[in-house]
Amino acid sequence: MENQLFIGGGGEGYGVRQELAMKYANRHGLIAGATGTGKTVTLQIMAEGFSAAGVPVFLSDVKGDLSGLVTSGRADFKLHDAFMKRARSIGFTDYAYASFPVTFWDLFGEQGHPVRTTVAEMGPLLLSRLMDLSEAQEGIMNIAFRVADEEGMPLLDLKDLQSLLVWVGENRDQLSLRYGNVSPQSVGAIQRQLLVLENQGATGFFGEPALDLGDLMKTAPDGRGQINILAADKLMGSPRLYATFLLWLLSELFETLPEVGDPEKPRLVFFFDEAHLLFDDAPGALVDKVEQVARLIRSKGVGVYFITQNPDDVPEDILGQLGNRVQHALRAFTARDRRALKRAAETYRPNPRFDTADAIRDVGVGEAVTSLLEAKGAPGVVERTLIRPPSSQLGPIDPDTRRAVIAASPVAGKYETVLDRESAYEILAARAKQAAAEAEAAETEAEEDASAAQREFNAARRYSGKRVSRSSARTSDAGLGRTIGRALTEAVVSELKGTTGRRIVRGILGGLFKGR
Length: 516
Description:
disordered C terminus; two-stranded antiparallel sheet; Rossmann fold; 3 domains
């Protein structure tokens, strides 16, 4: 049916055909279930359905399996007969193999086009979350961003932030009077966390050219939505970076896109796989931000679908906003599992034909308990559902195919070359160089003045008037004063010419130039 995304259904003992209405697809959703129960295939068939309806999709490929979306399924595939049998049993009469338009992305630039953002766009809150900073350290991050704005120093990459933090540490006395305490220990702790980020490969993520959100919202020439696949298998080795990046992307979409109300179909659908990584040990401020984005981004025409093992992984306030649900099997091996199963069942509109908790526990691989929004956005009655088979290849593609797709991509060459324009690092380096040159000039001038004083003293000593005879028994008071004065002058000039004198001059001049 037009403007409907077919999920599955049909078959003896199962409920009615399950279709997701496109006009309710931006009301968000949840795909949950234990490992190996079919969540990835459900994500795949939903991506196919949205693309076929002209809706761009962004999803993360945690295991590498979803790259098969770019290739059509084949009749010689070992599950071909099973797929055809299931299609017939659920009334999927127009089922056929097909490939879909795909763009590959990769934060590390290895399995897709590089994805970058600037430090300024990430912001102090998400960066603090990324580095697991304390409240005091997060405060210093906010001070650093404020100073960067006031001083006109763009924060683009990690070296910009690192050099700015050095400047903040050197000028902590002045900044503490204005913004609050800036301790060198906290600055040092932040620098160490930035070093950890570098070691995790985050250096390439921060910089320019930054990702243009418009490149995620393209459609193919035939009108189908582009499926953007983020290679996340390596990224999962840095789970905090993975979660922070996806949250940043959601936040950017929320802040950038205009209001569109409730469109006939979404402008973009965003799948957040391994969603529990977003909420594990997350501070309250971050959870509040996710809730705000989830609540308001639907009015921008963006649908967000969380994929996780257990609905309990998602905070209750956010879970309540996920109207479209596909629940694969949950195992109830422990008392905690049974409690989680009961809570999951209670969130569905009951069906008198079966017990929801029993159904969630008993459904097999490729089956699910579903509830999709119906007229006026009301949740539908829970149904046992056979998930439709995918039209694209089930499983990953080979590296040669991936490279060919990347080379033919509509954004090929746009992000591959790194830009390094003038920013905080270069500005602070130029200031330091100028201050050093001025200090050197001042030191040279001081040494020249000292030499001139020495010459004047020598000349004055040669023409200083009467000399006292060696045979004189007494020295006048005035002569004694001149003798002491000469000794002091010689000592001062000697010191100024020496190493200690140069240190004094540099110390004085350094204080004058500090903070410029």
